[in-house]
Amino acid sequence: MRLSRSLIPTLKETPAEAQIASHRLMLRAGLVRQTSSGIYAWLPAGWKVLQNISRIVSEEQANIGAQEMLMPTVQSSELWKQSGRYDAYGPEMLRITDRHGRELLYGPTNEEMLTDLVRQSIKSYRDLPQCLFHIQWKFRDEVRPRFGVMRGREFLMKDAYSFDLDYEGAVVSYRKQMLAYMRTFQRLGLKAIPMVADTGPIGGNLSHEFIVLAPTGESGVFYDAAFEDIDWEKSNFNAHDPADLENFFQTATGSYAATDEKHDEAAWAEVPEARRREGRGIEVGHIFYFGTKYSEPMGLKVAGQDGGQLVPHMGSYGVGVSRLVGAIIEAFHDDAGIIWPDSVAPFPAVIINLKPGDAACDAMAEQAYAAFKGQALLDDRDERAGAKFADADLMGHPWQIVVGPRGAKTGVVELKRRSTGEKVEVSLEDALARIG
RNA sequence: CGGGACGUAGCACAGCCUGGUAGUGCGCCUGCUUCGGGAGCAGGAGGCCGGAGGUUCGAAUCCUCUCGUCCCGACCA
Q1: What is the pLDDT at residue A205?
Q2: Strand B positions with any atom < 7 Å from protein CB?
Q3: Does residue A314 sit in the same domain as residue A399?
Q4: Which CA-bearing residue is nearest the C1' of B70?
Q5: Which residues 55-114 of A interface with strand B at a CB distance below 7 A?
Q6: pLDDT in the model for residue A112
Q7: How far is the CA of A364 from the C1' of B58 (A)?
Q8: Among residues A265, A281, A270, A276, which one has the least CA distance to residue A193?
Q9: Residue ending a domain, choose from A338, A366, A382
Q10: Could you tell me if residue A167 is inside a domain?
Q11: Nearest-CA residue relative to C1' of B37
């Protein structure tokens, strides 16, 4: 994209409503604009980030065999009455009435809908297990939206649902999702720790929250430093090998980790003092096993091997995709602005033409821009150098390729790595090669 | 849902107490100078002061209602 032709409205000053770093920076970097309390429009650069995150989430879901689909945002109240949640969900559910007086709702989640879709088509144990997911906008009428996109009312969520024959199968599905989550957060550049969460009436230990460490996080966290030593990139767990999956689960949940609500002083005292870590964190994912909570009341049954009827065991698995944008910025920013991890950056690089109109600069900048096949951002604005540098740092592009009149003559650009601040003068070819 | 604030130009704010017809900085437009870390000078555009009633000769300012937004707390991806 050419910045001169783009709607990426950066701000020098911080809008008054933004209290935390990510909210401030998302507004200042021109990623989003608020349209109502807790509801945001995603401007071009912000939308690219959201898509990049979605793609990674989606790929890791596919890696464990989950199938992507898309369910509607608007749902009928009928199914929710079957599950008993139409009343139970309360005022957080946005209820709508259509012109015929039918009760509709803007979906806060999709257990009922998918259970219905599955019961229509799945009749035999041979068809299980199944795991399906979609990435779709949700609406929860939060009492108090805040922190920008981190606690919005409308938000983008990946929600997956597993259907297994029995508890043992459901546990396997659960662990696969956990593995997919660890890989997903890893690829996003985040250090996310699974922490035991409340399971509600179902009991057991099959609910985990995934907490990203960030100093501005909402919950306090306590964890054993042993977790930090796990090299997820090298540990190549195979989701489809039972022993591997078991090994993974023990690795991921084997050491102490809890949010302040579930913190257990007795267990904490057993962690060697040198390994105790305290901090703050943001919940970016939550996974549940809930047995037959929906399959039972909604009448999802399959024929078993012996001809009898079985009620499938289910689980659901959520990732707050739009919240992740905020969480990533909370984890990666400095005084000058955002520092995007390469995997989610809206543009892999910005090419800063310091002197638009100068033949040599224009030629070199265009050459660099062409090398990215339109994926990079070209700052071709007629602005002063300082403004361009400041905006580039603010927007957080992983790489800055600076084309100036000095270097344009000798075929040299300045290549800056946003994360380290390191600058080198190299040929354009070298710069492109380093960016890869 | 309890508690507390605030709505004045694209952004940040002053003016309100003590009514007299709207201002500052940044941003935006034009010109000249400048030009590798948010330039200087000169000129200019942009606001029915959130909305509706009321009081008054006169309301951004006082009163009532209303809509919107934010903050603290309890709840959630």
Answers
A1: 64
A2: 1-2, 10-13, 25-27, 34-39, 68-77
A3: no
A4: A17
A5: 91
A6: 95
A7: 65
A8: A281
A9: A338
A10: yes
A11: A386
Q: What is the pLDDT of residue A202?
A: 56
Q: How many CA atoms lie within 13 A of A296 on its CB side?
A: 7
Q: Which of A310, A338, A366 is the last residue of a domain?
A: A338
Q: Burial code of A342-361, b = ≥16 C-beta within 10 A, e = fewer?
A: eebbbbbbbbbbbbbebebb
List the domain range (segments joined by +) for residue A386: 349-435
Nucleotide nearest to A210 (CA to C1'): B77
- How high is the pLDDT of residue A436? 85
Domain of residue A166, CATH code: 3.30.930.10
CATH of residue A364's domain is 3.40.50.800
CB atoms within 10 A of CB A17: 12
Provide the CA A9 to C1' B45 distance, Å, integer: 20
Same domain, A287 and A230: yes
Under-50 pLDDT residues of chain A: none
Q: What is the pLDDT of residues A108-157, one digit of tens each?
A: 999 999 999 999 999 999 999 999 999 999 999 998 899 999 999 999 99
A37-CA/B8-C1' distance, Å: 21
What residues pair up with A133 in beta bridges, in sequence order? A68, A160
